[in-house]
Structure formats: C-alpha cells, structure tokens
Write a structure and sequence with these properties.
homodimer; nicotinate phosphoribosyltransferase; TIM Barrel; seven-stranded antiparallel beta sheet
Chain lengths: 447, 447
C-alpha cells in the first residue's frame, strides 16, 4: 500500500523537541483525546473515518537509522536518539469506530501512553482522521442530496496529492458513494471502479459517431457513451444511431453529459432516448457537481440517474478543514493519571479527564448524546471501544463494507433536521454533571 | 521518498478503457496540454509547481504484474495487458518550469506521445500540478500579506493526507515560506524546519514557569516559548522571569501566541518584553491565520514578527481547487500531428494545436502575455522549455532553492495590481492572430 513506508518523521518538529525535554525531565504517562471543537459550516454531524490508518501507523511505528541521522544533524542529543531508536507504541487506544457519528467535543480517539510517544503520534493521527472524516461526511451529504441515486467519486485528479486521491476514494465509499474512478483505490481497497471515455477519445476520431462505433466494438453496449463533446443532443442521437447500426437493438447502459444546462439537456435527452426505445439507458451527469447543485437539479426535475462528483467531493471545497485537535486530558502525578485541561481567555477550553460518549436512542432514532467521565455509568450506548491495550491491537478492524454499512445505519437513526445540507439543527450533546464539576474545579484551581 | 512506489494504476479507469479501445483501433500520436481555464477567486496569477513529481513519475512509469492481474480480473483483454506490460514513456514534454507565473489558457505542460500513454498519465499529471500550484500560489499570497515577515508552514496535521502534508511543505517553500514544521518534509526536501513546544507541554507541568524553566534547561534561550496556555500576558511575564532566573540575562529568541486578540496581545506583549529589556525577542503568532487575517492584523499595527500558518495554507481553504484540465490539442492524421479542439454549446472551448507562451517585459515589469502557435515567432520571452525528448529527460531539474528564487523574481516583475489579495486586476493574455484564425477555422469545420 502507498504510504505504508516509514512515517515516524511525519511529525511536527515540536513533538520531538518536546520529546527530548521530557526525556531529560519526566516521560510521564499521559492521555490525549482527539476531538472536534465545532462542526464545519452547514454540517450537523460528522462521520468518523481514518482509524484503520491510525492503527496501521501505530503498529509499524519506528525510527530508522537515517531518520536518527537526520535528527542528529539537527542537534538532538545522542541519548535521546538512542531512546528514539527503541521506541515502539506501548500504549492504550480507545476510539469511535469508523462509520460512527461524531459531534463537537466528543472524543474520537484517546491515546494513553508515555507522553513522548503520545506526542509524536499527534501529527499523523490528526492528519489521518481529519481528512477521511471530512470526505466521508461530504460524501454522505452528496448521497443524501441525490435522494439515493448512485454517486461515483471522480475526484482523483483534483485531490490534494496521491494519498488524498486514494483516501478520498475510501472515505467517500464509507460515506455512501458506490465506487470510484481511481483504479489504484479499487485495487487497494477493493472498491468498485467506474469509467468509460473522455472527450479526447471522441476528438481523436474524425466524427463522433465513428468514435462511438469504435468504442462499442471494443466494449459492447454495457457501457456509457459521452455525448457532450460537440452538441449534446446531437450526441445523444449519434449514440443511439451507433448502437442501432452496429447491433440492431436499442440497448445501451448509459450516456454521460459533463457540461451545459443539465436540467434542460437531461430532460431532452431522456425524451430522445425514450422515443428511440432506449428506455433503460441511464443518464450519467458529471462536471461541477456538489450537494447544493444536485439538490437544485433534482428540485427542478432533472432526469439524472447517476452522478459523478469530483473536485468538490475530494476537497470538501465548501469546508476543506475541520477544527479538530488532539489535547492533553490526563497526565501522571504521583504515579496516577490526573485530569488536565487548557484554559485561556478565549474559548479554547478543553474538557479534562478521560471521557466516554453515551448516545441515547428512542424509537429507532438518536435523541441526544452525553459526554461523561470514562468510568461513569450513564444512560445510552457507550460509543468508544478499546483498540489497543499495552501496544497490542485488541480490536478486529472491520471490512470497508462493514464500515460503510455502519455509516448507513447510523445516518438512518439520525433525525432529518440534523442532516439538512444547509443550516442543519444542532444535535444535543450534554456534559455529565460529574464532568462539569471536574471542569469547574480545575478551572478554579488554574486561574 | 514517499509515493515513489508504483503509481501506474493511479489513473482513472476511463484512461485504461480508452487505452484498450485505442489499442484495438489506432494508437495514434497525440498532444495534450495542461492548462487552467480560469483563475480561482481572488487570484491574479498562479505559480507553477509540481513538474518535478511529473518528471519522476514519467521516468519510473511501468505496470507491475499485480497491476496487470488486477486489470485481468476487470475484463481487460490479454493482448492489451501484454501491451501494457511493455509500456514506458516514450514521448516529448514541454513545460513551464516550476516557479514561473501562469495565467488562464496558457499551456503549463504539453505531452506528445502515443495516445494510450498520454491518456494514462492524465490523472497523475493533473493531480501533481493542481495541488502544488494551488499551495505555492496560496503561500505567495500569505507572504505578500505579511510584508516580508517570515511565514512558516504549520499545516501538516490538517493537510489532506500524508502526501499533501509533504507536498504542501515543498510548495509553500516555493511560494516564499521560510520553512515547515514537518520533519519528514525537512528531510526529503532539505527545507528548514521549525518548532518548539505545544500547550500540552506546559500543561504537563505543575506550573507554567516550571515548564519554561525545564524547557530552557533542555534547549537554552535560542528558543520560542509558548505563552498563551493560561493567561497570555502572565505567560509573557513567566517567560521573562524563567529566563532571568536561570540565566541572569534578557535574551530569548521568541515567544509564541496561538489564541486571543492578537492585535492587542501582541502590542502588550511587545511593551512588556521591551520594558524588561528583551528588545530582540521576536513575537511569533499562529492559529487561524491566512492572508486576509494577517493583512488585517498588520493594518491594525499588530506587533508580530513571524507567522505560523496551518490549515488555510495547506488546504488553500478559500479556493481548494483549480479549474485545471488536460486536453487533446493535436492528433495524428495521415502521419502528421493535426490540431484538435473540443467545442460544446457551453464555454468549454479549448485552443487547438501545440502552443507557446510569450511574456513581454517592459522596464523590468511584465506587461502582457501572448499565446501563440508553437512555431510562431512573437515578441516576448518564450516560456515553455523542453523537458523530455523521446522519453528521455533532457532538462536539468533545478534545486528547490532555485525554484523558490525563480518564483520570487518572477513575482517581483509582476505589477502590484495583479497581486492584490482581493479583487486583483486581470493580467492581459492575448491570443495570436494565427492561433485565433486556426481556432475559428476548426470551430467552423466542427459545427
């Protein structure tokens, strides 16, 4: 797999400079929790994704000699480099499984480990969960806007690098897409792959109809012909004629349109196809789509059966980042993990201590969540499960299809008002009385 | 290096389905040009970046047996798979070197090769150039807004995957950042790396001053102390006291603030530092920055010396994608490369034929560009240079520092009105008379 190489140095320098200082003072045990401070604009929920990459990273984590040599030239001390040479992940991890819903302030992942380890992992853990969560969520919004019509990820070329192209394919499959155009993602993740032809194919031939005929000779009629290279409706007619002239039948899997007034063109194309007896031919649309555009097209009765969504999906362009952080919540004091928090004049206050998320269901729908201390017993289903114990993976990683199904069923339980693509309602997340008391006590002692 | 692995399958499925069809009909020679249809919002220029990755990709391109096995299971034919087994890049490439300015419709890269090859490369080439161009451009805007104060890339954790974190560090260095927090990027690209401590470090100690003292014992005073964990101005005083108590001197490289009202706090912090004799101590600011925020801070006389910019830089969050495409401009007809174009009812018309960019300078400033046919001789400097000839790299890849210097000098030649961070003027790009005539002739023949 791509990026399975050594990523120990994929970390911010301060994790290592802090590491050396802890090494020389106290490498205490500590817990960090990954959580979202607030939801991105127009989001009423997030879908957790990225945990599998975090697990693989922790399992393989180690510094190689050339990493240490690089650090040696950056004035790190020999004793600390010796320590790094032997470092492996030895801690505990609790997490929300992939496909679960996430709301603000809820721990997504908690890492408990000697503080040097836990800090070095910060950069990668945030990177992995931020991006896939962003894209799984964006995909679910697009799927929702399409009212169950299939969505295919067409975004590899505009994703932010190769790794993003692959992970976007995985995350958008979790969020409900039926597959991707990216062949390597199909190979790595065993996701269905889709695609037929580009405009350049049509242009490479003397005429559009000749291009269609050559194509059908190679691939048959269980294929999708791109009809908008020159004149879209003439393209539909050329597609029909090419099929009829070569096969004498009126069977073709689909046509695709990538430009123009999709509402009018799709309705006209449907009419032309139906009149020629191509009743089962699907209309695929791509080009500049997102949940807002799809919602508009369908509200205007566009005749579209399948959507290919690219740039907007893989960059989550209306919200390309999540305010996601990894904060110290406990550290060892006299041999015991003790709650910690950050408090500044501004609003960046964190909830101290190791926490659990309790989700309360009523009549098959989620009603509210509570965030409590980890050892509290509150109403609702406990959402964080153990992933690592003493450095050992104790969690069976689900298959991608299981994760996708989890996301689907969880979204079904979430009432509609939280899933609106614009101005969704705010899902209630309560803080338990004990956690509030602890927060207030610590706040008072620190100020 | 990361992602140097086999990326032949990092392509959209349609590139391969078209490939099989070309294989069975005519694998003619063709030229594709990569260009930007329009600039993203608030951009008056782009800085080309990503060519080095394209070169490395083309040099290493090949299908491995397990790639072919994957395609075999997807119903590709054995003869075509045999052909793919032997495929190598055999074509010509002309390109704008990295660091050059780019305007709409100007070819950034032209690939001339048998059409199967040229198509398979499309996905990776767009992916590589889109992202790094986006980030180099964003970085240059941020550097510009900071009026030559240093900018450091702090974005790895919010970049879209690992590859994006690394490439963003490279591209933002091209765009004028002085370095990155990402250690692996520092190692791979030999970019300066920066970073000291996080809030968690301060919180792990019983008091802020004790944390500072422990830090100084590890790292001395040529370091940056993070002062906003509890109360920013008290943090500044604690930093001063920690230095004075341990060293008896008033020397400290910097303090960093990551939250709060940066204008007021930075001015107060400067006053406190100066009053204590810490005149050379720099004020570093991070947290929620971009070119718009930095411009506002400085217009309100914030006392900030260095900026660390994260999420907005590495996601180019106000414009996370470029409308960049790779279009057929020529294909072989009777053994000769003949101009091609796409023309539909909408505006997605492409300029046909192989092209060159001519940039006209007057008194040390760029005045306008012309796009002409490749063999035209027009006024101005020809910007596309040859990179590959018959599959062989004939271009000496410049060092990253040379690319960065190129971007700096090119930006200096671009008049200010095109560099405004909001509503920049439109740089004039003319189409040569011959190219216009060809476009009109082809349009007429196609419609």
């Amino acid at each position: 797999m791509i990026n399975s190489g050594n990523l120990a140095l994929f970390t911010d320098l301060y994790e290592l400079t802090m590491g050396q200082s802890y090494f020389e003072s106290w490498n205490v045990k500590a817990s960090f929790e990954l959580f979202v401070r607030r939801l991105p604009p127009n989001r009423g929920y997030l879908i957790a994704a990225g945990l599998e990459d975090v697990c693989n990273y922790l399992l393989k984590f180690r510094f190689e000699e050339d990493d240490l040599e690089f650090l040696r030239r950056r004035e790190f001390k020999e004793e600390f480099l010796d320590f790094l040479r032997g470092i492996r992940f030895t801690g505990d991890v609790w997490a929300l499984p992939e496909g679960e819903l996430v709301f603000p302030n809820e721990p997504i992942i908690r890492v408990t480990a000697p503080i040097i380890e836990a800090q070095i992992f910060e950069t990668f853990i945030i990177n992995a969960v931020n991006f896939q969560t962003l894209i799984a969520t964006k995909a679910s919004r697009i799927v929702n806007s399409a009212k169950n019509r299939p969505i295919i990820d067409f975004g590899s070329r505009r994703a932010h690098g190769v790794d993003a192209g692959l992970k976007a394919a995985r995350a958008s499959y979790i969020g409900g897409c039926i597959g991707t155009s990216n062949v390597l993602a199909g190979k790595i993740y065993n996701i269905p792959i889709f695609g037929t032809m580009a405009h350049s194919y049509i242009e490479a031939f003397p005429s559009e109809k000749e291009a269609f005929k050559t194509w059908i000779k190679s691939w048959g009629t269980d294929t999708v012909l791109l009809v908008d290279t020159y004149d879209t409706l003439r393209g539909v007619k050329n597609a029909i004629e090419a099929v009829e002239e070569l096969t004498g039948r009126n069977e073709l899997k689909g046509i695709r349109m990538d430009s123009g007034d999709m509402v009018t063109l799709s309705r006209e194309a449907r009419r032309i196809l139906n009149a020629a007896g191509f009743l089962s031919t699907k209309i695929f649309v791509s080009g500049g789509l997102d949940e807002y555009v799809i919602d508009e097209y369908l509200s205007r009765d566009a005749e579209i059966d399948v959507f290919g969504v690219g740039s907007s999906l893989v960059t989550s362009d209306d919200a390309p980042k999540i305010d996601i952080v990894y904060k110290l919540v406990e550290s060892e004091e006299n041999g015991k993990l003790t709650p910690r928090m950050k408090i500044a004049e501004n609003e960046k206050v964190t909830l101290p201590g190791a926490k659990q998320v309790f989700r309360i269901e009523e009549n098959g729908k989620y009603r509210k969540d509570a965030i409590g201390l980890f050892d509290e017993e509150l109403e609702g289903e406990k959402k964080l499960v153990q992933i690592f114990r003493n450095g050992e993976l104790v969690y069976k990683l689900p298959s991608l299809d299981e994760i996708r199904e989890k996301a689907r069923t969880e979204l079904q339980k979430l009432p509609e008002e939280y899933k609106r693509i614009r101005n969704p309602a705010t899902y209630p997340v309560e803080i338990s009385r004990k956690l509030l008391e602890l927060t207030n006590k610590l706040r008072t002692s620190l100020v």
